[in-house]
Amino acid sequence: MGITVKSIVLIGAGLLAGIGATVQFPAIAQKVGAPLPLDELRQLSDVFGLIKTDYVEKVADKKLLSEAIAGMVSSLDPHSVYLDKNAFKEMRESVQGKFVGIGIEVSMEDGYVKVVSPIEDSPAAKAGIEAGDLITRLDNVPLKGLQLDEVIKRMRGQPNSKLVLTVSRKGDSKPLVFPIVREEIRVQSVKAKMVAPGYAWLRIAQFQEPTVDDMVRKINALYAQDPKLKGLVLDLRNDPGGVVPGAIGVSAAFLPSNSVIVSTSGQLPESKQVFYGRREFYAPPGAKADPLAKLPAALKTVPLVVLVNAGSASASEIVAGALQDYKRATVIGTQTFGKGSVQTLRQLTADTAVKLTTARYYTPKGRTIQARGIVPDLLVDETADGDGWNSLRVREADLEKHLNSDDGKPEAAAPTLGAVHDQLEEEQRLIATAKKRKPLEYGAKDDFQLQQALNHFQGLPVQLSKAEHKADAKAARISDKPEIKSDIKAEDKKIPVQKP
């Protein structure tokens, strides 16, 4: 069981990990089948009546019924949820890659909101907000003790409305105050640049409706700079997922035509599907041309590394799993989140919907992603000194009421008291250095995992995870014992042995 550490999110974006393979908006009708449980429905009616007559104050009918629906859906698993008017609007904005806010990437550290980076040309960037700033107040209201989701809600608002940020900045003895006007922010889900002669970096921060088209433009720009790329790093770290057609399109860009990308299986016949790397599975509705047709042919064979971590979930795990199954890429980093379930959106009214888990995802080789995640080919920590906050993150298997993996294998046992103590000590150590630590900037020169990816391309030593070295040392000690030496096999290990 991990210790909860909030993942990086975009203010106002409402990044839900994995919107799902389908978005359906039919009128919901009662299906003919098993009879309704009348006794339980009568109890529900009785409780409703008791609250209306006996509760200390009046409660609106709409509130009671909405909360009843929300509780019923949320009792199923962590990703099934009732979306009221505001939540439904925010979800649609996130999928479209736009929202109203101030435009900053943040994380929660030591009880404060820490700026990872302002979005380019956003109101926050123009106002002077910098990476590493600690946001202590919003409109002069202290944020200490609030959950990150609550802070996000307070930062959202109407276009042209004002928000005042109070910021603590390293090197400044006094707080800084920034009045900022909210605007509609359009998030660029794809970034790219050359990181070394002959080597390029392509980052996907979230899978949105424009992701495939954006990726094509970025890749063509890279090949315009260097038509003979020797290697490409596909960075999916902290990518929480998004729309699945985007994941299929990204995978198809690197794989042979018509390759199986992912399959799903659930209770309904339509949930048992196989998704291929074909235009109809990733092109936007109404598109007349295949967006991937514009890509250079060399992309199918360029050496490829995929970077992942515990924040890589859902759609990003689909991509990593497909490229790993076909041995098209070497996956480097740490084990992914393990969110391998499909959420289908069923609209109830014009402004409300239910996001319901309807199937599980499987990689092309039939590996389950749910509660397992993708284990990298090469385990590499976030920094040279260790995996930092990434090692303390909660994964899908840690979530209460999570859907099981459906592969017949037992899940990890609960941690021992000693393991929990070690985790708490590590958390305290990380908190003590949170204000001093420079925020990790993906794609920068000091991006340790990216540098290990470049080392892999160039045949140089790759510094593997400290946890992996411990496993190697343990295996070496066991193999020194003649009576069991023959039982130690390379394939029993999580990853291939590669010493630095």
TrEMBL record:
GO terms for cellular component: outer membrane-bounded periplasmic space. One of its GO terms (molecular function) is serine-type endopeptidase activity. Pfam families: CtpB_N-like (PF22694), PDZ_2 (PF13180), Peptidase_S41 (PF03572). SMART domains: PDZ (SM00228), TSPc (SM00245). Signal peptide: none annotated. Residues 468-500 are annotated as: Disordered. The keyword Protease applies. Gene3D superfamilies: 2-enoyl-CoA Hydratase, Chain A, domain 1 (3.90.226.10), 2.30.42.10, 3.30.750.44. Residues 88-170 form the PDZ domain. PROSITE patterns: PDZ. It comes from the Bacteria. SUPFAM superfamilies: ClpP/crotonase, PDZ domain-like. Its EC number is 3.4.21.102. Keywords: Hydrolase, Protease, Serine protease. One of its GO terms (biological process) is signal transduction. InterPro entries: ClpP/crotonase-like_dom_sf (IPR029045), CtpA/B_N (IPR055210), PDZ (IPR001478), PDZ_sf (IPR036034), Peptidase_S41A (IPR004447), Tail-specific_protease (IPR005151). PANTHER family: CARBOXY-TERMINAL PROCESSING PROTEASE CTPA (PTHR32060:SF30), TAIL-SPECIFIC PROTEASE (PTHR32060). Belongs to the peptidase S41A family. This is Carboxyl-terminal processing protease.
